[in-house]
Amino acid sequence: ASKAASDHLVRAYARTYGVKATLSHSSNNYGPCQFPEKLIPLMILNMLEGKSLPIYGTGTNVRDWVFVEDHAEAIWMILGRGASGQTYDIGGEEERTNLEVVSSLVDAVSALAGIPEASLRKLITFVEDRPGHDLRYAIDCTKLRSQLGWKPQHDFDRGIRETVKWYLDNPQWIAGVRTGAYREWMKTNYASRGPGRR
User: Fold this and answer.
1) N-to-C CA span, the chain
2) Residues 6 or more apart from 89 whose CB is under 8 A from it?
3) pLDDT digit string (tens) for 110-143?
4) Which residues, 6+ apart, have CB-to-CB distance to 3 below 8 Å?
5) Smallest Cα–Cα separation from 130: which of 191, 79, 83, 184?
């Protein structure tokens, strides 16, 4: 509700006072420097440490994924060429279930870190779903494509490999953000139902 209200306020200022303003909504981002509570970095780091890979519910929740650099390029394009008062949706056009995302990560981590794929797949664990967790997030970026000529430059497989490589190459950054508060958040939000339970 607060996000929708903020959109209305921005549009009202653009219409009433002539303030040049654009809005954008995006699908799920991924890529370098993402805080490790998020699905993709969490799974990468847990694989590297031999920890369980906690997936909400049955893993069938669907999200569209956009690589962070593609998102940034879209925002820059909207700021420079977007029509004032207009909203543009930014999507990677890469819908995946959470289980499919983790499977892609297993493939990439296995290939880039040399960890046997079978040992990584055994780490998959299903945990109780969040209350009110949406089954699907989808976004239609047709307007952004047709009016401003934007399109994502990273397909999901390429983006995942670049992301995994970044986390492999930056252990100091990772250590710096994994504080006690982060560990407490993990304990609270990913209570396991037990290894391998589906």
Assistant:
1) 33
2) 24, 25, 26, 139, 140, 141, 143, 144
3) 999 999 999 999 999 999 988 888 899 999 999 9
4) none
5) 191
